[in-house]
Amino acid sequence: MNTEKEQRLRDKLLPEIEAFKAERSTLQLATQDADGLPNASYAPFALADDGFYILVSELARHGSNLKASKNLSVMLLEDEAEAKTVFARKRLTFDATAELVDRESDNFSKGIAALSARFGEMIDNLAGLGDFNLFKLNPHQGLYVKGFGQAFSLSGVELLDVDWKRDGHHGTPRAELADTVI
């Protein structure tokens, strides 16, 4: 159960996080291939009521990586020109799994519609190409960093549970995650 203080923090931060997500057009991806080799990249994204959607070519390294390994890390990052300092840029990071969306599914139509609304007819053109795949990114745990000493862990359904990380922001040890019900 949330305490009054936790609820105030949640009520203040969640709208700020939603606005931060809406201001970003792309997200950074950390993917890995079948051999575990990492790759950093980016992709335009859109939010729908059930999560983040990206449309990527399997000819691109991150596109083939997402088909080989569904685990990834994602970051939305404040532009350097907007930041008070480059040492503490606002950012939202989360661990996620990528779900390949079947072209015949309702989710495919939903994801393409969300991307088209945000980026226009380019999405419809790309979606018609056989090498482009739609992925839904399902976040598991996250971290929102506002600046120095202002890191907040996000967990729970849709990352709506907020906790101020007063002991740094290195994330939750994997052993603890195994016991966490999300």
TrEMBL record:
Gene3D superfamilies: Electron Transport, Fmn-binding Protein, Chain A. Keywords: Oxidoreductase. GO terms for cellular component: cytosol. GO terms for molecular function: coenzyme F420 binding; oxidoreductase activity, acting on the CH-CH group of donors. It holds the Pfam family PNPOx_N. It comes from the Bacteria. Transmembrane segments: none annotated. InterPro entries: F420H2_bilvrd_red/Heme_oxyg (IPR052019), HutZ (IPR014419), Pyridox_Oxase_N (IPR011576), Split_barrel_FMN-bd (IPR012349). Signal peptide: none annotated. Residues 14-145 form the Pyridoxamine 5'-phosphate oxidase N-terminal domain. This is Pyridoxamine 5'-phosphate oxidase-related FMN-binding. It comes from Shewanella halifaxensis (strain HAW-EB4). The lineage of its organism: Bacteria, Pseudomonadati, Pseudomonadota, Gammaproteobacteria, Alteromonadales.
